[in-house]
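Holo model, uridine-5'-diphosphate-glucuronic acid. Inputs:
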Amino acid sequence: MTTIAVLGAGYVGLTAAACFSHLGHDVIVSDINQIRIKNLQDGLCPIVEKELPELLETGLRNGKLQFVSDNSVAVSQADFTFLCLPTPQSSNGDVDTSFVQAAAKEISPFLKPGSVIVTKSTVPVGSTKIIEEMLGRSDIAVVSNPEFLREGTAVHDFLNPDRVVVGSSSETAARSVAELYSKLNCRILITDPASAETIKYAANAFLATKISYINAIAAVCECVNADILSVIEGIGSDKRIGPEFLNPGPGWGGSCFPKDTIALVKIAETAGYDFSLLRGVIAVNAEQLQRVTEKILSRKPVGAHDFKVGVLGLTFKAGTDDLRDSASITIIRNLQERGALVSAFDPTVKAMDSINDLVDVRFAAASIDALTDCDVMVILTEWPEFALLEPSEVLKVMRSRSVVDARNILDRDKWVEAGFDYQGIGRS
Ligand code: UGA
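Output:
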């Protein structure tokens, strides 16, 4: 019977723990946040993540999943210890690995002899080696096993991976980690640790590049009267390009892309390479936030004394309650700085949750309430329910007929027929 310890009950740790228990392993999760652990013991899932509550409940019920708030207890019987701890960005753009390093130091004396440490957190290239040194135990191997989970579909992504990457200087340890995924029947790539760590950054940076690229092409479309939807179809059907991650939007955000792109520029710089391409990708994203802000502000009726904006969607994408580095937050702040009055609705965000991020926003209990008396309706997150709004209903509550659809999810013709001035991203 394999026993896995997971340190960190965030979205990566919880998803990994729930899925490993689903695959038949015995899993024990530890987190310093005692309230979170208590809630998990009581079956309460702390994040909005599809399928996760069900897996957690099953794991608790069949005894395959346990929660503790003591790392030493979690690791003492474990054959594998997964580090799923936060690696935030420090003020100079470097990755702050202090949580990972502190945990490695703390657990070192308690690790079961011959067990394996696995880093799942996104850590700078070279970290696997550093952790090995910090542990100071020749019987413990360290393996890098980056995650490629998207928030909102994390469970599905874990159980249906395009690939599993395992990097280690110990072939035996790498194979033993690969074995944990054997039921998934997927491609397993075994590499050296630095390559595994680089794959993680390179994947996120490439995806961010794709989105910045399509946002830039959308800007071109607006200048030359082309329609981005046709352009996406045209280029996305080329197998070498592919249709995924080609949706223009208000700018990419979340807990990963902004942090990881900056980190990769830094990692490259420290190692002697100026990653100008990626610096450009980051700059295009900052421009996109500004472009969308200007697009909204341009909807202010001529001569109006005030400008009321109804924002639909606060999270950085649909399917999550995560507001970290959300384009919505930056755009709302930009609008407020320019004098706009903002009301907002998001299906997963309550006013109290966001009090630190947003000041002076009127939080509504439903889309239609957020739009009441507004000059412009703005869609910033692609929640499917926003696409179901009826123009005739919206018409009744708004004071002007303007729509900025920053996710291109509305049926443009329907809104135009209803008399709305419709602006998408890259739509002619
Ligand atoms: C991303 C990666 O997709 C995962 O593979 C990776 O494991 C994860 O980061 C991580 O490093 O932990 P996630 O941050 O959950 O996952 O979100 P994505 O679905 O990648 O979206 C990122 C941002 O890009 C969002 O703001 C989203 O709205 C935006 N986006 C995405 C677009 O604007 N257009 C698209 O076509 C796709």
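The radius of gyration is 23 Å. Residues 149 and 157 are 5 Å apart (CA to CA).
Archived with the compound record.
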